[in-house]
Each structure stands twice: as structure tokens, then as C-alpha cells.
Amino acid sequence: MVVIWIIIFVVVLLLIYAGIGFYAALTLTKVGDHPQYEQDPGSFGLEFSTVSFPSRGDQLKIAAWYIPHPKAAKAFILVHGRNASKQNAISGELPRLAAELHAAGLAVLMIDLRAHGDSEGKRYTFGAHERRDVLGGVDFLLKQGFGAGQIGVLGISLGGAAVIGAAAGEPAIGAVVVESSFADIDMLIEPKWKAESGLPMFFVPGVFFMWQLLMGIDLKGVKPMEELARVPPRPVLIMHSWSDETVDVQHAYALKNAVPEAELVVFNNCEHAELFRDAPEAYLAALGPFLQEQWVG
């Protein structure tokens, strides 16, 4: 009889553990609210189109703004971070950044990652599936006539993981810029686990298991620094802030260590994913020469 009660007790504990892990897995991948802003490319005198295309592989409808350029030989894809969108990223300054790239002679595609903005989807996956959204953007630009190597990508935070994953396996991407991005999911989650989830550390394996069960992917394998190592000899620019409290600057150094030839620029007194808002001149001083000297030519 005692053995039966022990078995029942263990089963109940396992069910509770699994239930909490299931709830946390759903909660921690839910897209949150974001302040809304009004600017779009038209705010800067640019003609643009609202377009959509399927994500590569799973065919989700990805919403985007396309800003053509009559003289552009190359194009850039801009990818926002978690809980943002093509309109609301960088405190609404992403369209302004697009305008700067357009002024430099590039066509620009601004996408909404799955589950964000006007795109389909319900949850985010730390870049594991978001790379498909970026690759859908690559396919769109290839159809516009841009060839292999003529498409660059810039990803912010979650978008950084997405563009790294996309570039690692897609040679059509000719240059990679990442900002405020993480290098390894363990390095990202474990230091902030209790603050983000409110749960003890021993729930981490259960939540990862539930993520695999729900999404069909092993998020433990999300290691952008390992994928970034497959990008060279294509040029890579890494930008981060010393004062980033969401993704510690050690992630930028881990990415740099994975690709020693990458260019690393570290900013002072900038919030997470707000480098262009907080230091626009320094941002453009880093991005512009990188593109001209290493990619645009």
C-alpha cells in the first residue's frame, strides 16, 4: 500500500511539473504588446508597397513593406526584434533607418516576423523558425531580380538570431548585420530565468522539453554563434551596447569570437535594441562604411 501511495505521489508531482512546464512554455513564447508608432517609409518621402510572401518551408503569410530603388543593384532586409514590428521597432525609428539605407542606394524590404505585426503565426521561437520568414524575404527579392550575394540582412535582437540562421544556409545572402542579438540560448535564458518566468531553475529542462513537444524543435540547439561561423567569407557586422540589460554584451563578444574576422562595434549608454534611436550618428558611422567598404563597393 505504501508503494502505491509513493507511486501516486510521484505521478502527481510529475503531472504538476509537466503542467507548469507546459504553461511556462506557452507564456514565454507569447508575443507581448508594444507601443504603437505612426511612421512608415512614406513619412520620409519614399514610395513603398505593402506586400506579403510565404515563409520558406512552412508557408506562413509574412507581411512586409517593400521600398524599391530605381538604381539599386543590391537590397537589404530589415528584421525587428521580439514584441515589435516593421513599424514599431527601435521606438518607431525602423522606417527612418530604412530611409537611410535607401538613400545609400539600396532597395529595402522591411518584414514582420511570424506572430508579429501583420504576419501570420502565434508564437516566436528564438529564431529557430523565424529564419524561414527571412528566407521568404530572400525569395521575394530574388523574384525582384536581385541575384545571389546581392541581398543583405540586418536583424535586431530576435531578428539577429533569425538573420544569422537564414544566412548560415543561404548563399544568396551576401552580408549580415546583427544588433543586440544573443549568441546562445542557454546564455540568454539561464541568467534571467527566474525574473522572466518566476520559476526555480529546475523547471528549465521541463520547459525546453515542452517547447520541443509543442513546436517540434529542440530550442537547446539555437546557438547563433555556431551558425554565424558558417557565414564568412561574407562580411559580418556585430553591434551591441555596453549597457544592454536584456542581452548582455558578452553575447556580442561570443559572436565575435565565433567569427574573428567580423567587425564589432560596441556602443555606450544605449538601451537594448535601441542603438539607432539612442546613437543615430554613431550607428550610421558604423553601418555606412561597413556596407560601402565590405559589401556595396
Detailed description of the structure:
This protein has 297 residues and is of the alpha/beta class. The protein folds into 2 domains: 1-30 and 196-220, no CATH class; 41-184 and 222-296, Rossmann fold (3-Layer(aba) Sandwich). It is 42% helix and 16% strand. The protein has 12 helices and 8 strands. An 8-stranded mixed sheet has the order 1-2-4-3-5-6-7-8, with helices on both faces. Helix 1 (2-28) crosses helix 8 (204-215) and helix 4 packs across helix 5 (158-169). The longest helix has 27 residues, at 2-28. The chain is elongated. The chain starts with a helix and ends with a helix.
Number of domains: 2
Radius of gyration (Å): 20 Å
- CATH architectural group of the largest domain: 3-Layer(aba) Sandwich
Classified in CATH, the superfamily of the largest domain is Alpha/Beta hydrolase fold, catalytic domain
Secondary-structure class: alpha/beta
Structural shape: elongated
Strand line-up in the sheet with most strands: 1-2-4-3-5-6-7-8
Q: Major sheet: size, sense and barrel closure? A: 8 strands, mixed
Low-confidence stretches: none
| Strand content bin | 15-25%
How many β-strand stretches?
8
Using the coordinates above, name the CATH class of the largest domain. Alpha Beta
